[in-house]
Design a protein that fits this description.
CATH topology: Amino acid/polyamine transporter I
Shape: globular
Largest sheet: 2 strands, antiparallel
Radius of gyration: 21 Å
Structural class: mainly alpha
Strand content: under 5%
CATH architecture: Up-down Bundle
Order of helices and strands: HHHHHHHHEEHHHHHHHHHHHHHHHH
Helix content: over 70%
Length: 485
């Protein structure tokens, strides 16, 4: 046996096993589960996310300007609604918004953007249901702090401790993959590409900053998130809008290309003109879910730490979370790439993209460099650093809650130590394997979550009906509740 054979064989085995599992989770059955869950809640609530837009925007975004209690919590054992949003967005506004969108375009074509929109539109109601149930079934521990999450919902709502433990185990794995190594990898790649920073140096820096925050607990994480998540999101949006505005003439054709290639039956049959519907759907939905995490249940533990009293209100914060993450942020990235003229499907499809250095963040950097010569790559690298770092912080709490559920409070400190150590591994791991493993962990985590949502769907609908009858209904006419089952 030659030197290096065992590690190479092990890596090949991991890749083959992951491909098999991922092929099932993100194949027709897995995609159908995600989309059908969101479609069910959308239909049964009369498309709440669309027809009640005034209500949920007024209860979330607009509430920030009129209600100080939404911004600053009076409960010293909880975080405010705004902090819960920022912390949840910290976990979702990650590399999926920059690297993930570029990866979807390279792997699934422009049509993948349309399926990102579909997954986000339906996912708004999936995360609405997750958060509402998370608030209903959370409880306070002996210190007075809120304890919640999908595992708590499953145990207290269904009495299925084995299913709750299964979710928690998948959540711990996902926290190291999607919430840690994928983000750390993108930070290291971006800093090396833009500034020539060695990956080892990036790893040490991120580990140090993450450790200072994570070991401070949820209140420190939330405090950091509320200070820089809004800033980094606004800065990135303005940069992306600048790229689109200066290439406004290409915007109509970019939008038409997205719609046309999402339903390009000739490409699906021939394979020569594009990627086909199935491939666009697969990467569009997968990258959309990687970004907004609707149906995965990762942010429920964070939302459950909020001082909110009404489950439906926290559900509406979830709707806004997905809207901001995917409908706004991911769309801006996609349109910036397509309008800038740097994207060429024929030249950069699949492996060719890596061969010319246009995989991941590099494609987005080139798009921004068309209007920011000399600053495009640094701007994207800094954005990735902030986005990915915030994701690491947000996911650390979700993973910690899952580890504590499985092993008790004594597991919190070891988990945090391992989580920090995994950052170094993520910075030095191959990008493709990290992304592939992250997709698999996401899918595994979603299975028990989607099952619990189905079994507890009646409670979500009842809570929503009751809320509208008590107060929310005053904002809209009675006839708009007729779609409830």
């Amino acid at each position: 046996m030659g030197e290096g054979t065992f590690p190479e064989n092990t890596l090949a085995f991991i890749e083959a096993l992951n491909a098999t599992v991922s092929g099932f989770l993100w194949g027709p059955v897995g995609l159908a589960l995600f989309l059908l869950a969101g479609l069910y809640f959308s239909l049964k609530t009369g498309f709440f996310q669309l027809r009640r837009a005034k209500l949920w925007l007024g209860s979330t975004l607009l509430a920030l300007f009129r209600d100080k209690a939404v911004v600053k919590s009076r409960d010293r054992h909880a975080i405010s609604q705004f902090q819960s949003l920022c912390t949840a967005l910290a976990a979702t506004l990650g590399t999926g918004n920059i690297v993930g969108v570029a990866t979807a375009l390279v792997s699934g074509g422009p049509g993948a953007v349309f399926w990102m929109w579909i997954s986000a539109f339906l996912g708004m109601m999936t995360i609405f249901a997750e958060n509402a149930l998370g608030i209903k079934y959370r409880y306070r521990d002996e210190s007075g702090a809120w304890v919640g999450g999908v595992m708590i919902t499953i145990e207290r709502g269904l009495g299925l401790k084995w299913l709750a433990a299964l979710f928690a185990a998948f959540c711990v794995l996902a926290s190291f993959g999607m919430g840690n190594m994928a983000q750390a990898n993108s930070i290291a790649e971006g800093l090396e590409h833009a500034f020539g920073v060695p990956k080892a140096a990036s790893a040490v820096l991120v580990m140090a900053l993450a450790g200072l925050t994570i070991f401070g607990g949820i209140r420190r994480i939330a405090g950091v998130a509320e200070r820089f998540v809004p800033f980094m999101a606004i800065a990135y949006v303005l940069g992306g809008l600048a790229v689109i505005a200066l290439n406004m003439g290409r915007l109509p054709s970019a939008l038409m290309r997205i719609l046309r290639e999402a339903f390009d039956f000739r490409a699906a049959l021939g394979g020569a003109a594009g990627y086909g519907i199935a491939r666009a759907m697969r990467f569009g939905v997968a990258r959309g879910l990687f970004s907004n995490e609707a149906g995965i249940g990762s942010s429920v533990a964070v939302h459950a730490a909020s001082d909110v009293e009404e489950p439906v209100v926290q559900g509406m914060w979830g709707i806004f979370e997905v809207f901001a993450d995917t409908i706004v942020m991911c769309t801006i990235t996609a349109l910036a790439i397509l309008c800038s003229g740097v994207y060429d499907m024929a030249a950069y499809a699949g492996p060719a993209a890596d061969a010319v250095g246009l995989g991941g963040a590099a494609l987005t950097s080139r798009a921004f460099s068309t209007v920011l010569p000399g600053f495009g790559a640094p701007f994207i690298s800094i954005s990735i650093l902030l986005f990915a770092f915030s994701t690491i912080l947000g996911w650390s709490f979700s993973g910690e809650r899952a580890a504590v559920y499985l092993f008790g409070k004594g597991a919190a400190l070891p988990y945090k130590a391992l989580f920090i150590a995994a950052i170094y591994l993520g910075c030095s791991s191959p990008l493709k394997l990290v992304w592939d493993l992250s997709d698999t962990f996401n899918g595994l985590m979603a299975l028990p979550n989607l099952l619990s949502l189905g079994l507890l769907s009646g409670e979500v609908l009842q809570m929503t009906r009751d809320y509208l009858r008590r107060g929310g209904k005053k904002r809209l006419p009675r006839r708009k509740t007729a779609f409830f089952g």
